[in-house]
UniProtKB/TrEMBL annotation:
Residues 1-18 form the signal peptide. It comes from Flavobacterium cheniae. This is Carboxypeptidase-like protein. Keywords: Signal.
């Protein structure tokens, strides 16, 4: 592939975004009036993607008028007409699924075999090659206090095929704010950006439940999905007697099209506590979560967003510390058309952590698709001031 890049493309993209239709959507639970986090919002005409934060808030910036589809695994999917989004701040309510009970499905094949076929079909359906425009958002805690933040606008040029994926990464803008020291394991410092898309598109996070031995470790079941009769759910839960840090898995799939729409996993607190008490390792995990959401739009099948959380305790300089890393990735746009670029513009590091801050717009509010909460913004401002103070001291 011929590669030339003019980063003027980023500048022109910014001009286009400045002319967008921009407003805020706050998503709340119909019964409790509480905000709903991690609602996937997709503009039906433009296919732009957004994700709500802990406040249930998303800043929607559209290239043209479009209805919005709101999806969450525990709520009924809704479509909001653009004509009703007349305010600068619009409140939208979603109805929870709890009123409808899940039912077990009796299957001819073992659920693990169904899952294997789903993974194979989903891999083959994935749109490749494709350019994904992604917003990456990461917070780092030390002893329950946020000490570092980074985010950025990234273009993933995904090449190859379902069996062999190659990703070229181009960074448009980024921020790295705060101070990290040697107490955070470099293996979990953010995503390994050079293989994360391969892991997601190959569904490698499910590898541990695909082995034949997994049937003796996990209980597999298939259930109905209350909000959509065309969807089913595979639940995979470790047996009580199974040992180790084992996750509970949930896979939502389209039973007609045989593709995966959501994969999530977490380790229950009880299991993590038992692991912590039984181990004498230098690193003890106390939190482990993962979630991928995929979308099918016409011929496009792609990653819509992801989340990973890991928290662990370890000794550093003879003191115990609690470290937690939380990452979100939101696909704000996608295109089959690949743009040209040169090899020198390709980002080859594992993480944005050590990349020098470089931005020319407030992309985190306009183009991100996922905004920080008011509390997080205050923390980012505090970290920024600390950074400036450190620079001033170094200059002196």
């Amino acid at each position: 592939m011929i590669k030339k890049l003019t980063f003027l493309l980023c500048f022109f993209t910014t001009i286009v975004f400045s002319q967008n239709l921009e407003f805020t959507v706050i998503v709340k639970d119909f019964d409790t009036d509480l905000p709903i986090e991690e609602v996937t919002i997709t503009a039906s005409r433009t296919q732009q993607g957004f994700l709500t934060n802990k406040e249930g808030k998303a800043i929607v910036s559209l290239t043209r008028s479009s209805d919005l589809e709101l999806v969450h695994s525990t709520y009924k999917t809704i479509v909001v007409k653009f004509s009703t989004l007349t305010k600068k701040e619009n409140v939208v309510y979603m109805e929870p699924n709890t009123q409808q009970l899940e039912e077990y499905i009796i299957t001819k094949d073992h659920p693990q075999e169904i899952l294997k076929r789903l993974i194979e079909n989903s891999r083959n359906k994935m749109t490749i090659p494709v350019n994904l425009k992604v917003y990456l958002h990461e917070f780092y805690k030390r002893d329950n206090q946020i000490v570092f933040f980074n985010d950025g606008l990234i273009n993933f040029q995904i090449l190859g095929n379902s069996k062999s994926i190659k990703t070229d990464i181009l960074i448009e803008q980024n921020r790295a704010i705060g101070v990290l020291d040697g107490d955070i394991d470099p293996n979990i410092l953010g995503y390994d950006l050079n293989n994360i898309i391969e892991n997601y598109y190959q569904f490698k996070y499910l590898d541990e439940v695909l082995d034949s031995k997994a049937k003796k470790i996990y209980d597999f079941s298939v259930k109905t999905y209350p909000s959509n009769e065309d969807y089913l759910v595979i639940k995979i839960v470790p047996f009580a007697e199974s040992k180790g840090v084992l996750s509970d898995f949930l896979v939502v799939y389209d039973s007609n099209k045989k593709i995966i729409l959501e994969v999530s996993s977490y380790v229950t607190p009880d299991r993590l506590f038992a692991y912590k008490e039984s181990m004498f390792a230098t690193r003890k995990v106390y939190k482990l979560e993962f979630k991928n959401t995929f979308r099918l739009e016409g011929d496009f099948y792609y990653l819509a967003n992801s989340k990973e959380v890991i928290g662990f305790e370890k000794y550093y300089k003879k003191k115990s510390r609690r470290i937690e890393v939380k990452n979100h990735m939101v696909i704000t746009d996608f295109d089959k058309k690949m743009f040209e670029y040169s090899d020198k513009n390709v980002f080859k590091d594992k993480s944005l952590i050590n990349k020098k801050t470089s931005f020319f717009t407030n992309y985190w509010d306009v183009e991100s698709g996922f905004v920080s909460t008011d509390e997080e913004k205050m923390i980012i401002e505090r970290l920024s001031k600390s950074d400036e103070s450190d620079k001033d001291e170094n200059e002196e």
